[in-house]
Write a structure and sequence with these properties.
It is built from four helices and twelve strands; from the N terminus they run ααββααββββββββββ. It is an alpha+beta fold. A hairpin with a 2-residue loop joins strand 6 and strand 7.
Length: about 160
């Protein structure tokens, strides 16, 4: 567990004990999360520079091997979703993913890996959250940059045809 997550968990367990109801009121108010916390990695701005879409694209190269999807959600947005395993980068804001009692609480700038499955997503504050999801594409769906390949003529939607 990440040190910040461990300190946060200790703080929340202390609050739960002091609440007198086992933390139920704090959980309902959004101050506590269900039983199991998952870790995230803070983005090191000093070593890597700002967390931007361009920085994420440079990490997940070659570009044709990954689907990179930026999203912006307004404050208090929540919905159920399903996903393949992916990387999630939070550029700014705060959000959480919950799956069967496991919670990923993400405070940007940071990133984590999510397993495949069904989640409940929630923006954890009144302000918006900007995030980028990255999925590795199956081999048959990868698109390679062909700008460096020699061209022998125009391309048709079904492949190359010769001039002659």
């Amino acid at each position: 567990m990440h040190r910040n997550a461990a300190a946060s968990r200790y703080h929340m367990e202390t609050q739960a004990a002091a609440s007198g109801d086992g933390g139920r009121s704090l959980l309902q108010q959004g101050h506590l999360m269900p039983s199991e916390f998952e870790t995230f990695t803070p983005w090191n701005v000093i070593e890597r520079g700002p967390l931007t879409l361009e920085a994420i694209r440079s990490i997940h190269a070659p570009n044709g091997d990954f689907r990179i999807s930026p999203s912006l959600y307004k404050g208090s947005t929540q919905f159920a979703c399903a996903s393949r395993a992916c990387h999630v980068y939070v550029l700014s804001g705060s959000c959480s993913y919950e799956m069967k009692g496991r919670v990923w609480k993400l405070d940007g700038p940071c990133y984590t890996e999510l397993p495949a499955g069904q989640f409940n997503f929630r923006v954890d504050c009144d302000s918006s959250v900007e995030l980028v999801s990255v999925w590795e594409l199956p081999v048959g769906f990868r698109v390679r940059d062909r700008s460096n390949e020699p061209s022998d003529g125009p391309e048709s939607p079904n492949g190359r045809f010769s001039m002659g």
